[in-house]
Amino acid sequence: MSIDDLAALVRTIPDFPKPGIEFRDITTLLADPAGFSELIRRLADIARPLDADLVAGIEARGFILGAALAQALGLGFVPIRKAGKLPGKKVGIDYVLEYGTDRLEMHEGQVKQGARVLLVDDLIATGGTALAAAQLLREQAATVLLALFAIDLPDLGGRSALEADGIATAALLEFAGN
């Protein structure tokens, strides 16, 4: 299956969540058994040479890709969640969005000091959430080896923002626009 075949499995929903936005919906790709398998295989091919210790996935679709990738690589998986979703002791980080603020959290002690981590999400747009997740991991004394995405929206500058912060970034698919 080619990159173009994978891209064709991503549905575009116009004017969601607001007018003028073209939402790239990866759930149609995930529902296709051959497409999902090929996506994880290709992500694993990118990640395998990095010799990571863990995969961290950003809520919510980053959980799907990250867990599947962790399994393919024989690694553990750590969820990075929105505020208030985790029981027990947690660490977190607040970050600014275009429309306000948000918070990401993970269980305290789940990422050991010095851990080499792959950060995974389905899509990189402006990069705000991925930057916050990477900072949260860094605050736990982890090294973010790579921020890995299925989709990049390069016109929104997220990849550039991550790379400007010293975070290596890769994505399989690119879609123009917003």
UniProtKB/TrEMBL annotation:
UniProt KW Lipid biosynthesis keyword = no
Q: Catalyses which reaction?
A: AMP + diphosphate = 5-phospho-alpha-D-ribose 1-diphosphate + adenine
**Ranges for the Phosphoribosyltransferase domain?**
30-143
Molecular function terms, GO-annotated: adenine phosphoribosyltransferase activity
The EC number on file is 2.4.2.7
Task: Please tell me which top-level EC class this enzyme sits in.
Answer: transferase
Q: In which pathway does it act?
A: Purine metabolism; AMP biosynthesis via salvage pathway; AMP from adenine: step 1/1
Note whether DNA-binding occurs among the keywords: no
Q: What UniProt keywords are attached to this protein's entry?
A: Cytoplasm, Glycosyltransferase, Purine salvage, Transferase
> Known Pfam families for this protein?
Pribosyltran
Under Gene3D superfamilies, the record lists: 3.40.50.2020
Cell compartments where the protein resides: Cytoplasm
Task: List the CDD domains hit by this protein, alphabetically.
Answer: PRTases_typeI
HAMAP family reported for this sequence: Aden_phosphoribosyltr
Function recorded in the entry: Catalyzes a salvage reaction resulting in the formation of AMP, that is energically less costly than de novo synthesis.
Q: Which family does it belong to?
A: Belongs to the purine/pyrimidine phosphoribosyltransferase family.
Tell me the subunit arrangement: Homodimer.
**Name assigned to this protein:** Adenine phosphoribosyltransferase
Which species is listed as the source?
A: Sphingobium tyrosinilyticum
The gene is: apt
